[in-house]
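hey so u asked for the seq, here:
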Amino acid sequence: MSGTLAGGGAAARRRLLDLTFQALALAILFLALAALGALVADVWADGASRLSWDFLTGFPSRRAENAGIWHALTGSIFVILVTGALAVPVGVGAAIYLEEYGTRSLSARIIEINITNLAAVPSIIYGLLGLGLFVRMLGMGRSVLAGASTLALLVLPVVILSTREALRAVPPSIREGSYALGATKWQTIWYQVLPVALPGILTGTILALSRAIGETAPLLTIGALTFVAFAPDSIWSPFTVLPIQIFNWVSRPQAEFQVNAAAGILVLLALLLTMNAAAIWLRDRYQKKLT
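ran it, structure tokens below
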């Protein structure tokens, strides 16, 4: 009888600890959401009145009421598209090699350790690397291609790690069934493994690009311009991006430019939310196809 009571008391304590942990985690979540909501509300109160079609399609000006954000918006979109074109094929290919072909080799282990370490390197280090490699050594200058290449190096470890996790989540039975039907290893990867892992790969890729679109330090390091009176029209054009334009406005003492900065933050948030919504939509779409 005493053993039963002791066991019941231990189970009650575990349930109490579990409920306490859940309550603590929920409180921290609400606290974080409240802080985020307060920040967004403050930015909205400052910059919502400045949002207009003229603001979105206008170019920079010394007069705050005439300044627009079109050059920075198109620069951000252009840079992030080139970044994705450079980082995604290399990242997915590297992940496939590490996960499907080289998991037991010494070289694959060394590469995996370095990738894990690179994922935690501060972004300013990538900016210095881009300055020395792309801007000076390869002669790209202050171009969209130099900025996109630097950001591609920044997000490449994240793309590789997220792709590997998506590949690991594929049930072994899918590979075994494909091999049993006579498919080669590459046919199994291309026709069976990648379609199943695609939702996870897309989600990780979009989240990595969402991080890149908000980066400022690497682009400032390679010499991205803070004042550009035109939108980029090629990968060799000088450029600026939304975070740099926001930083430029914030650094000015006039209150009108502070309002412009708040409006620019709202545009950047809208762009980030659009990218994340696209990731969710693509993930759900491919998951429905698989089911």
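The mean pLDDT is 86. Residues 2-47 form the longest helix (46 residues).
lmk if thats what u needed
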